[in-house]
Amino acid sequence: MNWYKLFLVSAIIGFSVWSCAKDPCVGVVCKHGGACLDGNCICPMGYNGADCGQQLRVQFVGDFVGDGVDQDKNAYHSWHAIYTSTGDSAMLMQLTVTDSAKTWSLPFKLRIQADLKSYLLDTIHSGTSVYRGSGYLGQSISSLSLQKIDNSTMDTTNYEFEELIKN
Fold it and tell me: Where are the domains of the chain?
């Protein structure tokens, strides 16, 4: 019977000590749907920071300039890829591509992918042409692969801008 009492007292004391341990997530606020684990925020895709309050896309905003070529090796100099934040989603951006003379411009919705570096462009229609593309984002360098399909002639032009430097 003494063993039973000893076990019962030990269990009560152990439970009391365990239940008094401080939860490391008390007082920790994680923004944008982040979750606290052991006192640290685990952020959803597209956010970072101690409280998940920073959008990753902000580091990519800017005007990137560079040269490119098409599949026939025609050169395109000083084209601009202008990345801006748009909408509520941390994974969406706007990309405006312009030629060096700024006489031609196309606005794209850009979807940042799960690796947080590559992106896909939503397909857009302009006149008789369809444009689509993809690329990579960095804080100071980006790249762009753009495809133009002219529906009136069925010609396809592929543009490659491998190194666009942030202004």
Answer: 2-55, 61-166
Backbone torsion region of residue 15, taken as left when φ is above 0, otherwise alpha when ψ lies between -120 and 50, otherwise beta: alpha
Tokens of 165: 């430097």
Closest C-alpha among 84, 140, 76 to residue 108 = 84
CATH class of 61-166: mainly beta
Give per-residue pLDDT as tens, 2-48.
Answer: 555 545 445 555 544 455 678 999 999 999 999 999 999 999 999 99
Cβ within 8 Å of residue 42, ≥6 positions away: 30, 34, 35, 36
DSSP state of 147: E
DSSP strand pairing (141-150 vs 92-98) = unpaired
Interstrand relation of 92-98 and 129-136 (parallel, antiparallel or unpaired): unpaired
CATH code of the region 2-55: 2.10.25.10
- Could you report how far apart the first and last alpha carbons of the chain are, in Å? 82
pTM score: 0.78
